Amino acid sequence: MRPLIARRGPTRLPAPPVHEAHRDPAPSIWSYRVQRLWLTPLFHKLLRVGVPSFATVFLVGLYFADEARRTAIWDGAQEIRREIESRPEFRVNVLGVDGASDPVIEAIRGALALDLPMSSFDLDLAALRQRVEALPAVASADLRIQSGGYLAVRVTERVPALIWQTRDDTQLIDAEGHFVAGLADRPDHGPLPAVAGDGADRVVGEALALHAAAAPLGDRLLGLVRMGERRWDVVLTDGRRILLPEASPVQALDRALALNDATDILGRDVLRLDLRNPDRLTVQLTPHAMEELRRLRALEHDTRTGEQSG
After folding, report:
1. pLDDT > 70 in the chain, percent
2. Domain's final residue, options 98, 125, 157
3. Averaged over 74-80, what is the pLDDT?
4. What beta strand segments (E) does the chain contain?
5. Residue 17: cis peptide before it, omega within 30 degrees of 0
6. What pLDDT sits at residue 51?
7. Computed from CA positions of residues 159, 162, 164, 170, in that sequence, does the dihedral angle turn out positive or negative?
8. Which of 200, 220, 241, 290 is most buried (most C-beta within 10 Å)?
9. Does one domain contain both 167 and 132?
10. How many helices (H) and strands (E) does the chain have?
11. How many domains does the chain have?
12. Is the CB of residue 120 less than 8 Å from the CB of residue 148?
């Protein structure tokens, strides 16, 4: 027997290996630009802050675009504010004024015109302080709200230093020449030196110095009169006057008082003692003294004439 031989089919060769396409590891130009953009700090900040902020503003604006919503929110806020401001701990119930006399206190209360009690939120302390300091008798003021609903007004009052008689009325002025009050409004001012004449309020320091120098005259001193806004006359109670120069009036007054101590010139028939010329003292006699002087001169003239005739 012939041996059996297995029949084989056609021989298949193995398939050739498939090679994958070679990929370039370098990124594309757009990928490179995107990666560079992500690494930019400004882009990071824009994503973290800018985008959320824009979204928030957009949503808030969209919400408040409705007028009904805006009105409701505004009314609610105002109601909350009114409830807070009307609480007892924020209310001012009492007004107190320190450092001022009774007439000035009344003037301050009238200037403030506060309808107490009221909320402290309704008080503009700066504006109220300006009202108080606008009063002539007030030099400065300080306003504070203290515990217990107490509005404290501390005042530095102007102190009258002179009585100034003008063409219209008589006023009280302080040492800086500021108007304090009318003489009739402050009857309790006490004894004060008196001055008169235009411009006397601008030289208060000199007037006070003259009054101090004239202290030896005592009750005979009536006051000072500003003449031509340049110089002073010292006026005595009997109408006599000491005419002082424009320059160094205090020293001139000292010389006049020294002369009076030596000769009692102010006790004689002298109406004016003129010191305006520092090199020459001039006196003006009273009418009676002038008549007596004329009589004596006429008598002397007649005597001389008789002697010459004899």
Report:
1. 75
2. 157
3. 70
4. 91-92, 94-98, 118-119, 138-146, 150-157, 162-165, 170-173, 179-182, 194-196, 221-227, 231-236, 241-243, 270-274, 282-285
5. no
6. 74
7. positive
8. 200
9. no
10. 9, 14
11. 2
12. no
Q: What is the pLDDT of residue 85?
A: 54
Residue with tokens 């008598």: 299
Question: Which residue's entry shows tokens 């302390």?
Answer: 125
Q: For 80-148, list the strands marked E by DSSP.
A: 91-92, 94-98, 118-119, 138-146
The residue whose two tokens read 């301050």 is: 108
**15-54 tens-digit pLDDT:** 665 555 556 565 667 776 766 766 677 776 777 777 788 7
Is pTM beyond 0.70? Reply is: no
CATH assignment of the domain containing 280: 3.40.50.11690
Q: How confident is the model at residue 231 (pLDDT cuts 50, 70, 90)?
A: very high
Q: Which domain holds residue 285?
A: 162-290
* Residue 47 located in a structural domain: no
Question: Average pLDDT of 209-233?
Answer: 94
In angstroms, the CA 135 to CA 130 distance is 9
Task: Indicate whether 149 and 206 sit together in one domain.
Answer: no
On whether both 142 and 193 belong to a single domain, the answer is no
Helix (H/G/I), strand (E/B), else coil: 294: helix
Sign of CA pseudo-dihedral 249, 251, 252, 254: positive
Q: Which is more confident, 309 or 154?
A: 154
**118 forms bridges with which residues in the sheet?**
92
- Whether 166 and 286 share a structural domain: yes
